[in-house]
């Protein structure tokens, strides 16, 4: 799960920097995925030692939850982006990608956290 957290963090940083560059650096909000990816990378680095793994991954899940909630507002407008009626289609697409990645991470990370508790308790 540590590698997956790091990979997700890198993917979000690339997504944010790419969105910022592709939108001609008009708005700093295009970097929002990077602002979520950097703390995920920090959590992955903290989770390397086994003694810190569970709390660091729990923190990563909290960051992912906040990021998913924040990106959901634009991700809901994906229909408008597909129809071509969205005011800021790039923001909608980036938010939708970020939302999907973070929700997938929450599902997988939550399952891994529950599984690790079950094995350490039993």
Automatic annotation (TrEMBL):
Keywords, alphabetical: Membrane, Transmembrane, Transmembrane helix
Transmembrane regions listed in the UniProt entry: 29-47, 56-78, 90-108
Keyword set includes Transmembrane: yes
Domain of life where this protein originates: Bacteria
Full protein name: Secreted protein with PEP-CTERM sorting signal
Species of the source: Pseudonocardia adelaidensis
């Amino acid at each position: 799960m540590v590698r997956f957290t790091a990979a997700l963090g890198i993917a979000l940083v690339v997504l944010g920097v790419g969105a910022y560059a592709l939108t001609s650096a008009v708005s700093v909000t295009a970097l929002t995925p990077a602002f979520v990816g950097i703390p995920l990378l920090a959590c992955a680095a903290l989770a390397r030692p086994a003694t810190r793994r569970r709390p660091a991954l729990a923190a990563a899940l909290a960051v992912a939850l906040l990021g998913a909630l924040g990106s959901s507002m634009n991700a809901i407008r994906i229909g408008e982006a597909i129809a071509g009626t969205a005011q800021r289609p790039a923001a909608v697409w980036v938010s939708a990608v970020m939302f999907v990645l973070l929700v997938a991470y929450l599902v997988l990370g939550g399952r891994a956290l529950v599984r690790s508790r079950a094995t350490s308790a039993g």
